[in-house]
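Re: that chain you flagged

S.,

Sorry for the slow reply, it's been a week of failed gels. I finally had a moment to sit down with the sequence you sent. For the record, here it is as I used it:
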Amino acid sequence: MKYQIRHTTVYRYAEPLRHSVHELRLTPRSGALQQVDSWQIHTPGNLTRAADGFGNVVHHFTLGNRTDDVTIEALGIVEAFPAGSPGSQCFVDAPGEGRYRVSPLYFLSATPLTSAPPEMVAFAREQMLVPGDAESALRLAQAIAKRVHYKPNTTHVGTAAAEAFGLGAGVCQDQAQVMVACCRALGVPARYVSGYFHAVGEEDLASHAWADVCLDAESHTWCSIDVTHQCFTDGRHIRLAVGRDYQSAAPVRGVRQGGGAETLDVSISIEPLPAEVA
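Prediction finished late last night. Pasting the structure tokens below so you have them in one place:
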């Protein structure tokens, strides 16, 4: 599937903003699961572009003028397709020649958002995850979706996997972080994925999150699993960034001076392109 995507983020401040620094992971990259045909980012400041250690495209901009709002817009066309050959759910995500990327083994270590308490470790062991086996990883995801029910407005961006597991509820971000935490607790590298999801009637999931599970670290082979929908990712998913947890893959992060109280408005449209255009 080929999609035209527009993602607008607007920050409004009760008092003038004096100074701010912004970090964006809002640019998808082409790879085994998608092809980026075009992509642009518009911000009020001059953008610098780099790649982080996970392979994500990262932009930064700084504002030094007083302002009451900041608008960030990303838009472009991306073609998404399932992993591997028919019947195969694996894909290779290795750095290109001359490029640096952390080893998949780096995704074995827990973070404050993905630490697993004893009860979560016990739950994960019960699911009998087999290293290198994508189907057993999918079964773990299905068990997590039943244990941590999808329920909007029960958590926030700072909610840890252990908290969501204890609540038994959360959103896609929480389900993905529980998946990552369970895999790591069993010695299997896993990473958090931020991105977009397109399905009629599920517009609230346009901004989505899921998990990559490493099948072979030496060859950088992974499978990508949508815990919320209990499936391997497919042509409905567009990847933005990967990280150890939400914080290291967040689409927009920043620090500021001034501004007072802040409100945030996010608008995302994902439109399938007609066959003659695609």
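What I noticed first: The helical segments are 118-126, 134-147, 161-167, 172-185, 246-249.

Talk soon,
D.
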